[in-house]
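G., before I forget:
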Amino acid sequence: MNAFANLPQFPWMSLLIMIPLCGALLCLLHGKRTNDCRGLALATALATFGVALYLFVCHGQGSERWLLYEDVNWIPAYGIRYVLAMDGIALLMVLLTAFMQISAVLLAWRVERHVGSFFALLLLLESGLMGIFLAYDLVLFYLFWEVALIPMFFLISVWGGEQRRRTALKFFLYTLIGSLCMLVAIIALYQINGAQTGAYTLVIGDLLKTQLTAAQEGWLFAGFLAAFVVKSPLVPFHTWLTDALTEAPAAGSLDLTGLLLKTGIYGLIRVAFPLFPNATADFLPILGILALVGLFHAAWSAYHQDDIKRLLAYSSISHLGLVLLGLAAWQLTAWEGSILLMVTHGITTGALFVLVALIRERTGTRSMQELGGLWGQAPCLSALFLLFSLASLGLPGLANFAGEILVLLGTFQEHPVWAVVALLGVVFAAAYMLRLVQGVIWGPAKAERTLPDLTMREWLMLLPMAILVVWLGLYPAPFLAPLHGAVATLLAGGLP
Amino acid sequence: MSLSDLLAMLPILILAFGATAILMAGAWYREPLPLLAGGIVTALLGALSAGLVTPPVPEIAGLFSAGGYARFYTILWSLLAAAGLMTGSRYIIEKRIGAGEYVSLVLYAAAGMALLSSATHLVGLFIALETFTLAFYILIASNRNCALAAEAGLKYLLLGAVATGFMAFGIALIYAASGSLVLPDAVMRLKAETGELQAWGLLGWGMILIAVGFKISLAPFHLWTPDVYQGAPAPVTGLLATGSKGAVVAALVGLLAMSGPVWNDLTDLVWLLAALTMLAGAFGALGQSNLKRLLAYSSVTHMGTLLVGVLCQTSEGFAATTFYVVVYVVTSLGAFAVIASLADGRGEPMTFDQWRGLGYRHPVRCGVLVLLLLSLAGLPATAGFMAKFAVFHAALQSGYIGLLMIGILASVISFAFYLRVTMLLFQPDEKASSWHQGSVFEHTVLAVCSSAVLVLGLFPGLLFGLIRQILP
C-alpha cells in the first residue's frame, strides 16, 4: 500500500526544459506550414509559462534548502549526474525567462523567412536558458551553456542585419573562448576533488567541500570568471554585446538582453562565488570598481549614440554594471536588489527593444536624426515608450527603482563611496533616457508619416509588461519573498 | 593452424573469402547492384560473427590477437566497410567502375584494418598495414577519367611507399636490438638495465613513429592529406579519413596498453608532434575554401588530439582514445557521406561557392552536416564533446597542462572554421543549385551516423563501459 510513497516527485524542472525542446522539434518538422508554426510556438511558450507560474505559486514559499531537486545518474563512467535544483533565485529567473519568451514569440510573428526554423531556434534557446538556470551539475551546466549559444548564433547569422555574419562569429568566439576556459577549470576542479575524496563527482554541492590551495583557487576561479564576465558583460569585455544586440533580429535582441546576459551574472552567483569563497573575497573590490567603470563608460557611450537600438544596448551594460556593483557589495539587501534589478531590467529593456522593433517596422529607421514627433502620430505606442523609458531611468514607483534603491542602500552600508559614485551614474541614466525620449517621441516630426498605432498582437505583448512594471515598482514584496532565504545562504558561503 | 584458430579468425575469413568470391563473380557478372548487396551482406556478416562467435583461443598463430579489443575493432571496421559500400554505390554505378573490383577492395581493406587493430606481432602488423594501404592505392584512383584522382592516387602511393620503408626499417632495428618480433616482448626487451630504451631500439621506435606519422598525417608529415582527400572520390575519402587512420591508432593503443610505459624516452617528441599537429591542422583549415580540404585539415587536428590521449599512457587515456576513435570515425564518415550523397553528373560539391545557400535546397542533409560539423568541433550534447572531455580529462590527469591549453586553442580555431561552413550553408543565395537527391543507401548511412552522434553524446556511458572491459 506504500507503493506510491517512494515515487520520485514529479519532474517539474525537466518539464520546463523539455516543453520548449519538443516545441522546437515540432516547429522544425512543420517548417513548411507557417501559421501552424506560429501557433505551436506560442502554445509552447504559454505552456512553459504556465508551468513556471504554477511553480512560483505552489512551490515558491518553501523553507527547504531547495524548493525542488531532481537527481538522476547520467554518465556513471565519469560520475556525471543529471541534477536540477531550484531555489528562490532560480525560480525568479525561470519565471522571467518563460514570461519574456511569450513576448519574443509574439514579436517574431512577422518574421517572413524560414519561419519554422526561426521559432525552433527561439524555443531551443529557451530550453537552454532554463537548463542554465536549473542545472546543478557542472557538465550539465556547461552543456546548457553551449546549447544556449548555438541558437543565438544562428538567429544573428541568418536573420540579422547588414553585418550579421561578422557579428555572429564575433559573438560566438568571444563567448566560446570564455566557456572553454571554464571547461578547463571544470575538469581541473573535478580531478582535484576526485583525488581528495576518491569519488569523482561534478555536482556543485559536493564540489563545495574541495580543499584548494590559494593558487589553485585563484586559477580555477579565473577560468570560471572568463566565461561569466564575458557574458555579463563586465567592462572591458563588453564590445561583442553592442554589435550583437544591434545586429540581432528583434526577438533575438529581446532574448539576448533580457535573458542571455543574465546567465553570466547567474553563473557568478550560483557557481563561481560559492565554489571559490577566498578567491571571491579577493576579487570583490576589483569587481566593484570595474562595475562602476562599466556603469559610467556605458552611460557615457549611450548618451552619444544616434541609433536607438545601440543606445539601449549601452544602457543595458550600464544597468548590469549596477547589478554587478550590488553583488560586489556582498550584502543581503544589495544582493536582493541586484537580483530584482536583473528581473526588472529584463522586463523594461526588453519592452523597449520591442518598441524599437515596432518603430523600426513602421518608420524604417532607428536613427534619432530621422525620428521625432511620434507622439502625434502614434500616441499609444509613444505612451508606452515613455512609460518604459521612465521605468528604465529609475523613476520611483516603477520597476527599476525598487531594485536600484535596494542596491544603493545595501552598497552604502558596506562601501559608502561606491554608493555615492553609483548614484551619480543613475543621474547619467536619466540624461540619456530623457534624450532618447526627446529624440523619438517629442519634438517636431522629421518626416510626414501616417503611422498605424498598436495592433491587438502588440498590445498583448506590451500590456502584461506594463502591468508588471508598475506592480514591481509599487509592490515588489511577492518577488522578493522567495529570494530572502536563498540569498542569505549564498552569502553565508555555504550550500544554498 | 588448428580448427580453433580458424574459428577465431572467422570474421577475417568471411571478409577475405567474401571479397575474393565477389572479385571472381565480378569478372563474369557485370551487374553492380547484386555485387554491392553481396559486399554489404558480407561486411555485416563479418561484424556479426565477430560479435557473436566467442573465439576458443586468445591468439591466432602468434600473429594476431582474438581478444575483446580485437573483436571490437573488427566489428567497427566491418560496419565501416558496409557503410563505405553503401555511400559508394551510386559512385560506382554512375562512373561505370567495375563493381566486383570496388567491392572486393573495400572488403580487403576492412580485413586489413581489422588485422592491424589486432596485431600482436611486428610482422603481422606490417602485413596488415600493407594490405589495406594497397587497397587504398587503387580505390583512390579508381575513377580513371579524373586527373585529380590520379594525382591523389600517385601522391598517396609515393608517400605510402616512403612510410612503408620507414616502417620496415624500424621493425628491423627493433628486431636487431631485441631479438624478438612478438609484441609486446620485442618492445619490452629494448629496455636496458637502467630502464631506458637502447639506442637501436630508440631509433627503431623513431622510424615507426615517422611511418605512423605519414599514415595518420601528423604534422609535419601531413602535407599529402588535403590533396589526396580532395582528389579521391568522397566515399573512398570517407574510408581513408576514418578507417585507415583509426586502425593505426588502434594498433598503437593496443600495443602500448599491453607493453606498459615504454614511451618515456619518446614523451617529449610525441608531445611536440601532438602540439604541432593540432595547431597545423587548425590553422591550415582556417584558410581553406574547399570543404573536402577543410575536412582534411580538421582530421589532422583530430589526430593531434588523439595523440594526446595516446601520450598519457594511462588506462584513462587509452579508454578516452578508443572512445575518440569511434566518435571520430562515425562523425567524419557521416560528413563525407553527405558530400557523396550530393554528388551528381557535375561531380561533388566542394568549393564554398557551391555550398553557399545549399541549406535551403537540401535542408535535411545540410542539417545533418551542421550537426556533424558541430560534433567535430566538440559542442556539448554531441558525441564530439564527450570525446574531447574524456581526452582532456586524461591529459590533465597525466599532468599535460600545456598540451591541454594548445588543445583548447585548437578547439577555438576549429569552431571558427566549422561555423564558417554552417553560416555558408544558410546564407541566402538565389544561385544555389540543386544537387542529387541521394539514394536510400546514402540516407541510411546518414541517419545511422547522425543518430549515433546524438546517442553517444547524450548517453556515452554504454560505450565507455564496454571500452573499459575490452582494453587489453
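The longest helix of chain A spans residues 164-197. The beta strands of chain A are 68-75, 80-86.

More on Monday.
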